[in-house]
Amino acid sequence: MRLFAVVVLVLSIVATGCRSAKDTTGKVMLDGKEIVSVKLECADFCKRVGTPPFPPFTEKTFAKENGNALNVFRKAIVNAEKMNGVLNYVVIFYMYLLFDDGAQKKYVLNVADEDGMNALLVDTEESSQGYTISKDLTSELRSFIYGG
C-alpha cells in the first residue's frame, strides 16, 4: 500500500511538471516544449473595428524577453474551459505559438478591449470547439495586447 502511494505521488508530480509554467531555467513550457515566441496577427475583424491595437503594424510578437507575456498566454491556453455547443464567431486575432523545436501551433484568440469580458480561444485544428478564458486572465491578456 505504501509503495502504491509513493507511485501515485511521483506520477502526479511528473504530470504536473509537464504543464508547468517555467522550468528551472526560466523557460516558459507547454506540453514539454519551450515557447520561444507568441505572434498575434490582427485578423480582418480587428482591422475593421477602430484602430488596430498595435499601430502602425497588423501583428505583434512577444519573444523570450517578454517572459511574463509568454507565461500569461500559456496560462490562458492551459486554463481555458471547454465550451458547449457549436460556435459562431468572428476572428479578432490569430495567435501563433513557436516552440524551440521549430514547431508552430495556431489558435484564434478573441480578446476585446473591454473590461469584464471573457476571451475566446479556438485551436484552428478543431475550429468548431471553443474555450473560454477567465475574466482575470482575459484582463492580463488585454493589458499585453492593448497596452492598458
What report would you give on this structure?
The longest helix has 17 residues, at 2-18. The protein has helices at 2-18, 44-48, 67-79, 135-146, and strands at residues 29-30, 33-42, 59-63, 81-82, 93-99, 104-110, 119-123, 130-133. With 148 residues, the chain is of the alpha+beta class. A hairpin with a 2-residue loop joins strand 1 and strand 2 (33-42). The protein contains four helices and eight strands. The protein has one domain. Strands 1, 2, 3, 4, 5, 6, 7 and 8 form an eight-stranded antiparallel sheet that branches. The chain starts with a helix and ends with a helix. Helix 3 packs antiparallel against helix 4 (135-146). Residues 1-21 have low confidence and may be disordered.
Descriptors for this entry?
148 residues, alpha+beta, 8-stranded antiparallel beta sheet, 32% helix, globular, disordered N terminus
Q: Bin the strand percentage.
A: 25-35%
Give the overall average pLDDT: 83
Low-confidence stretches: 1-21
Q: Termini distance? A: 54 Å
| Most strands sheet | 8 strands, antiparallel
H/E topology pattern = HEEHEHEEEEEH
SS element count, helices: 4
Counting DSSP E segments of at least 2 residues, the number of strands comes to 8
